[in-house]
């Protein structure tokens, strides 16, 4: 049988986690929290399950959760949205990204993405009959050259995908970026998919500049969010998409045939959590900044060059002063010889760079971070 995705194999995340397990290594590769979901949210899930909320939810999501999401948008981004018409609950952010891409992309369309990029973008575009146009971002700043972006727009360009806070670079888009993006969208009939799954994890007092803050951007955008990242429950696979009513209508046509509806008791539990414990969202940046700072301080004596982390729960390290190996080989040896699993950054590029940079996940317990840093400081 001829593959529809001939270039897709086992992901680097699966490979590195497998290596970590095989060698008993500290796993700072795959991006999931080592600590547990908040007790209040787990209790709410158990209560909703026992109360009998275990059948199909409405396809767009239960109204209570849609309304709490709209309230969160109003509180954080100062914009009022129509919960029923604009909020769709999904089986994780990856489903939301896939559905948004399928809703937009037609045969022969082009979608601009920025490398290093999340690995689900390209397959979803190709399955829709489109093509990704990759614009590489360069270390150490990973800044977008909007003049270059403008030069890549053609009559086939259907959409641009942005991601802020950005995985894997841990950079955030600034107001000048959104202004440039807005000017570009104003000149061309193209759409925007904004991957904002780390929206509540920004550091050093900086606020997340969501596309939802700007009506001129949001009127042509699908904005994707993740409960898994926000509430440390990645295994629940719960996310959502906010889009204008017309775009949401197209999104829901496809969503109903991909997943129809999402985990019902979790929807009720998440609505309760958003309503009764808003402080969790508000405190998330400080929570992760403390973890970032623990890891950075513990790595200070090492020979790595530490790149600034502005958001997400990732930290990039440049190992140029330690080894001449390519980053994939370096990460393999790091697991086998040092007992720490990391992710090579080159795998996030269409055309891998020669940069000697790896990604660490610091969504881990403090003891794990310090133990990993001690091993890395020995290099």
TrEMBL record:
<dbReference type="GO" id="GO:0008483">
    <property type="term" value="F:transaminase activity"/>
</dbReference>
<dbReference type="InterPro" id="IPR015422">
    <property type="entry name" value="PyrdxlP-dep_Trfase_small"/>
</dbReference>
<dbReference type="InterPro" id="IPR015424">
    <property type="entry name" value="PyrdxlP-dep_Trfase"/>
</dbReference>
<dbReference type="InterPro" id="IPR004839">
    <property type="entry name" value="Aminotransferase_I/II_large"/>
</dbReference>
<keyword id="KW-0808">Transferase</keyword>
<dbReference type="Pfam" id="PF00155">
    <property type="entry name" value="Aminotran_1_2"/>
</dbReference>
<keyword id="KW-0032">Aminotransferase</keyword>
<keyword id="KW-0663">Pyridoxal phosphate</keyword>
<dbReference type="InterPro" id="IPR015421">
    <property type="entry name" value="PyrdxlP-dep_Trfase_major"/>
</dbReference>
<dbReference type="InterPro" id="IPR051326">
    <property type="entry name" value="Kynurenine-oxoglutarate_AT"/>
</dbReference>
<feature type="domain" description="Aminotransferase class I/classII large">
    <location>
        <begin position="26"/>
        <end position="371"/>
    </location>
</feature>
<protein>
    <submittedName>
        <fullName>Methionine aminotransferase</fullName>
    </submittedName>
</protein>
């Amino acid at each position: 049988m001829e593959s529809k995705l001939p270039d897709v194999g086992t992901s680097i995340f699966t490979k590195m986690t497998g290596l970590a397990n095989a060698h008993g290594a500290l796993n700072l590769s795959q991006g999931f929290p080592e600590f547990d979901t908040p007790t209040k949210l787990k209790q709410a899930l158990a209560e909703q399950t026992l109360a009998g909320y275990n059948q199909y939810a409405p396809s767009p999501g239960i109204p209570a959760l849609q309304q709490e999401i709209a309230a969160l948008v109003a509180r954080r981004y100062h914009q009022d949205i129509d919960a029923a018409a604009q909020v769709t609950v999904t089986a994780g952010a990856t489903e939301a990204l896939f559905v948004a891409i399928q809703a937009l992309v037609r045969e022969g369309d082009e979608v601009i993405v920025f490398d290093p990029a999340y690995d689900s973008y390209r397959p979803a575009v190709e399955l829709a009959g489109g093509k990704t146009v990759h614009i590489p971002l360069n270390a150490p700043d990973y800044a977008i050259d909007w003049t270059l972006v403008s030069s890549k727009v053609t009559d086939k360009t259907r959409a641009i995908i942005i991601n802020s806070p950005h995985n894997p670079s841990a950079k955030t888009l600034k107001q000048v970026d959104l202004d440039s993006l807005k000017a570009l969208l104003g000149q061309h009939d193209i759409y925007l998919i904004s991957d904002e799954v780390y929206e509540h994890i920004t550091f050093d007092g900086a606020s997340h500049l969501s596309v939802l803050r700007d009506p001129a951007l949001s009127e042509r955008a699908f904005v994707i969010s993740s409960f898994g990242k926000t509430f440390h429950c990645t295994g629940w696979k719960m996310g959502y998409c906010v889009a204008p009513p017309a775009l949401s209508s197209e999104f829901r046509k496809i969503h109903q045939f991909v997943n129809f509806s999402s985990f019902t008791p979790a929807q009720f539990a998440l609505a309760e959590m958003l309503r009764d414990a808003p402080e969790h969202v508000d405190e998330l940046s400080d929570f992760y900044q403390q973890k970032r700072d623990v890891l950075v301080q513990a790595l200070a004596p090492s020979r790595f060059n530490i790149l600034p982390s502005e958001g997400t729960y990732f930290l990039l390290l440049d190992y140029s002063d330690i080894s001449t190996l390519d980053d994939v080989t370096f990460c393999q040896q790091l697991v086998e010889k040092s007992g720490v699993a990391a992710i090579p950054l080159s795998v996030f590029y269409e055309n891998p760079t020669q940069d000697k940079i790896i990604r660490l996940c610091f969504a881990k317990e403090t003891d794990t971070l310090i133990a990993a840093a001690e091993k890395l400081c020995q290099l």
